[in-house]
Amino acid sequence: VKRRLTAKFAQHLQSEEARQEHSAREGHTFLSKIVALNKSGKENMPIARVHGNLQTLFIAGADTTVSAMLVCLWKIVTDTTGLQEELVEEVMAMPCLTTSSDITRQSLMEGLPRIRSLFYEVVRSEGPAPQFMCQAATDFPLDQDVSLPAGTTFILPTQYLGTLPGSGIPEGPTGIPSSEFCPRRWLTTSPEGKVNGVIKPSNKTGVHLSTGFGSTPRICPGQHVAELEAILNLAAILQSFKVSISSDHPPMTLISKFTAYPDIDIELILEP
C-alpha cells in the first residue's frame, strides 16, 4: 500500500511541477503551494519529505473525518429533542444521494443546513482535533509581575477556546452557551423562524480559533474535502435508514491523544 501511495503521490507531484513550468497561473491546492515554495528558494523540502507530508495528510484526513462522522451519528442516536426527524425531513427533500447525477457541491451544501450545523458543532466541540497550538508574537503577560516571552508555544484544549471572550461563537436558538453542545447553533432563520441557512465557522464569519480546523496559514488544508465527505455520507445514511442503538449500549466518551476518537466501538442499528 505504501509503495502504491508513494507512486501516486509522485505522479501528482510531477504533474504539478510540469504545470508550473508551463503556466504562470497560480495554483490554490496544498500541493501547488509546496511546489511553488520549493521553486522560490525560500524553502527546499526534499522529495521524501513532500511524499511524507502528503501521506500524513491522506491518512490523518481519512481517520479524523471518520471520527467526526461517528460522533455526529452518536449525537443523532442519543438526542432526545427530535434532531433525527429534522435531519431526515431535510435529506428527503434532496434527490437520491446514491444514484442521482444532478447533485452538485453547491446544491448539497445549500440544501443541508441542519446537517452542516451538526457537523460544525461536533468538529468545534467534540471533534478529532482536541487541542490547538499557537505561539505568542509578543511578550504575553500573565499578571502584573509575570509574563511569558515572545515565541512561547501554547497548547490549548479546543473546547476551552470556545469559552474565551471574543471567540465569536453564537448562542444556540434558546440561548445555549458555547460551553454546551448544540447541534442547531449555526443555523440562521428568517423573521418567521424558518431555517434559511447556516453560518460556517471561520474568521470571515467572526469565529476565531474555534472552527475545529484551525485558522490562518496553519488551517487544515483538507477541511473542504472533509466537510463534503462527512455531510454527503451522513445525508446518504439518513436518506436510507433510521439510525439507533440498543437500549443497553454502553456510553461513549472521547479519548484525546494526538487526535480524539471514541473509546468504544459504536454499534449502530440501521433500519431501512
Mean pLDDT: 85
Biggest β-sheet description: 2 strands, antiparallel
Into which percent range does the helicity of residues fall? 40-55%
Helix-and-strand structural type: alpha+beta
Q: How many helices in DSSP terms?
A: 8
Residue runs with pLDDT of under 50 for 5 or more positions: none
- What proportion strand? 5-15%
Spatial sequence of strands, sheet with the most strands: 1-4
Question: How far apart lie the N and C ends?
Answer: 35 Å
DSSP strand count? 10
| Rg result | 21 Å
Oligomer: single chain
Note the overall shape. Answer: globular
Order of helices and strands: HHHHHHEEEEHEEHEEEE
Any descriptors?
12% strand, 8 helices, 10 strands, two-stranded antiparallel ribbon, two-stranded antiparallel sheet, single chain, alpha+beta, 272 residues
Structure description:
The structure is a single chain. With 272 residues, the protein is an alpha+beta fold. A hairpin with a 5-residue loop joins strand 2 (140-141) and strand 3. Helix 3 (47-78) packs across helix 6 (113-126) and helix 4 (83-92) crosses helix 8 (223-240). The strands form 5 sheets. A two-stranded antiparallel sheet has the order 1-4. Strands 2-3 form a two-stranded antiparallel ribbon. It is built from 8 helices and 10 strands. The mean pLDDT is 85. The longest helix has 32 residues, at 47-78.
